[in-house]
Design a protein that fits this description.
Layout (H helix, E strand, L loop, with lengths): L3 H8 L3 H8 L7 H14 L5 H8 L4 E6 L5 H16 L3 E6 L7 H10 L4 E4 L6 H10 L5 E3 L12 E5 H14 L5 E5 L5 H16 L9 E3 L8 H13 L7 E4 L2 H13 L9 E6 L12 E4 L2 H16 L7 E5 L1 E3 L5
Parallel strand pairs: 1-2, 1-3, 3-4, 5-11, 6-7, 6-8, 8-9, 9-10
Antiparallel strand pairs: 10-12
Length: about 325
């Protein structure tokens, strides 16, 4: 096995000089750097990240914390995180907090014990205790939030899609198609970006001169049911039980929308003639259902890439944008 000492001997320099070349120290002279790089290539040397971690206290590992695996939204986002991380020589540790026996705080504590370099934080919980804990973590390692910044930490780096204007536009689109009885399927109300989508729905109704009918707003309950398709079917069942039901619905995420479509179809409701459905996210499954789901698309993979780029820039001491806000786009398909 080739060691750093072998490279140093081949290049005719000291071990510390080889280390400085590997770590891109600008103080190394060009001819020295060339000699070391030639030796590395000749000997096919691969630096030990474990040894580097002991010396620099950097593991080149970042954590990608998600609340669940059942929502494929996070699977697509991870691809973007990994794209950027691998490009910069970082590995990504995926952490599913909801299905773990420990609390999120305990989970984060375990990550710190493993000397991860930073966190991309997707999870839902953001009460006072969690917010205070994360602020303390930020004193040790950087965190990028995939949500709007919390009130007490507005300067924290964050990446998200503003769903309010795009959801408002989607309501207006349905109204333009002749839909006057428009409902909404609400996901978790403790997530600011989900709440923004709901506000977009309310603003859309107002813009169209329509009044909110509380019976047409369905709030999913996830306590004992992690399957979003099943939750969407439950929502469809609820609407089917109403004497005065909507003629169109928007859903907070695609997976619930897909479940709604399946639930309505099972009851013989024609999509989109009797019921139009619009989701949010544009996950790949939205194109595979029959009819394909109209949705408000957000650039999920690009969001992951942006978060990883911000985190790695912070880790490497480079200037970067602190906030990246994407806009949603209505993608019209068969369900409308």
């Amino acid at each position: 096995m080739v060691t750093i000492f072998d490279v140093a001997k081949e290049a005719g320099v000291s071990k510390s000089t080889v280390s400085r070349v590997i770590n891109h120290d600008v103080r190394v002279k060009d001819n020295t750097r060339a000699a070391v790089e030639a030796a590395i290539e000749k000997l096919n040397y691969s630096p030990s990240f474990m040894a580097q971690a002991i010396r620099t206290r950097k593991t080149h590992t970042i954590a990608f914390m998600v609340p669940e695996y059942s929502n494929i939204f996070y699977t697509e986002m991870f691809r973007g995180v990994e794209d950027a991380a691998l490009e910069h020589g970082y590995m990504v540790l995926v952490c599913n907090t909801e299905r773990h026996a420990m609390s999120e705080i305990e989970y984060a504590q375990e990550l710190l014990k493993r000397n991860i370099d930073g966190i991309i934080y997707n999870t839902y919980r953001m009460d006072d205790e969690m917010a205070e804990y994360l602020q303390n973590v930020e004193k040790k390692i950087p965190i990028v939030y995939m949500n709007k910044a919390v009130e007490r930490d507005k300067d924290a780096p964050h990446v998200y899609t503003d769903g309010l204007p795009s959801t408002k536009n989607a309501v207006q689109y349905l109204y333009g198609k002749g839909k006057k009885k428009i409902g909404y399927v609400m996901n978790s109300e403790d997530i600011s970006i989900i709440v923004d989508r709901f506000y977009g729905y309310l603003q859309g109704l107002e813009a169209c001169g329509l009044k909110k009918n509380e019976k047409w707003v369905y709030r999913v309950r996830r306590e004992n049911e992690p399957d979003y398709i099943k939750l969407g079917k439950d929502a469809a069942k609820y609407y089917l039980s109403l004497e005065d039901r909507p003629d169109a619905i928007l859903t907070a995420i695609d997976m619930i929308g897909i479940g709604c479509v399946k639930g309505f179809q099972a009851a013989g409701i024609k999509i989109p003639e009797e019921m139009s459905v619009i989701g949010f996210d544009n996950v790949f499954l939205s194109e595979l259902v029959d009819p394909p789901l109209t949705t408000i698309g957000q650039p999920i993979r690009e969001m992951g890439q942006a978060a990883a780029e911000i985190l790695i820039s912070i880790l490497e001491g480079k200037s970067c944008r602190n906030t990246v806000v994407f806009q949603g786009d209505l993608i019209v398909r068969g369900t409308t």
